[in-house]
Automatic annotation (TrEMBL):
CDD domains named among the record's database cross-references: RRF
Lineage: Bacteria, Bacillati, Actinomycetota, Actinomycetes, Micrococcales
HAMAP family in the cross-refs: RRF
Family indicated by similarity: Belongs to the RRF family.
Name assigned to this protein: Ribosome-recycling factor
Length: 184
């Protein structure tokens, strides 16, 4: 029973760390990267649809992306969704067949803003991991009459170790992203 709770906790924390890394990848650096547009939702026939389902994204140069829609009628919606996306600073140009996005150079001030944003996202991810820990601790406490106190103490110690490992993984990913953002 304890092993099941700990295994479930570990897998949920692993998913939380992966989600944090994906979230970090959506914050742009000096290079154009299709992952920046992962979370862009386009209004397509009245339904918010992920950009990746409506178009292909290709990095043609260091700071230029080309968006080729599968359906030409979605061009305007895609262009508007990209323009409205916060934290990108991208200005798309539409030539009737595809959309070119040239990413502006990052100023030192803008880089610092992105670092703050990434730190905020990292803190949110750590709070999520701690929430998973709290829920698992409650599940362990519910077993109090069924298993020995020594087993519970051992399980709590292991739970703390799993939590620390995952928080450290988030911190490590945060440091890498911060270094990438501050790199000129």
């Amino acid at each position: 029973m304890i092993a099941d709770i700990l295994a479930d906790t570990k897998s949920r924390m692993d998913r939380a760390v992966e989600a944090a890394k994906e979230d970090f990848s959506t914050v742009r650096t000096g290079r154009a990267n299709p992952q920046l547009f992962q979370k862009v939702m386009v209004e397509y026939y009245g339904t918010p649809t992920p950009l990746a389902q409506l178009a292909s994204l290709n990095a043609v140069e260091a700071r230029t992306l080309v968006v080729t829609p599968y359906d030409k009628s979605a061009l305007r919606g895609i262009e508007q969704a990209i323009r409205d996306m916060p934290n990108l600073g991208a200005n798309p140009t539409n030539d009737g067949n595809l959309i070119r996005i040239t990413m502006p150079e990052l100023t030192a001030e803008r880089r610092k803003e992105y670092v703050k944003l990434v730190k905020s996202k990292g803190e949110d991810a750590k709070v999520h991991v701690r929430g998973i820990r709290r829920k698992s601790k409650d599940e362990l406490d519910a077993l109090k009459g069924e298993v020995s106190d020594d087993d519970l103490a051992r399980a709590e110690k292991e739970l703390d170790g799993i939590t620390k490992t995952h928080v450290d993984l988030i911190d490590e990913a945060l440091k890498r992203k911060e270094a990438e953002l501050l790199e000129v």
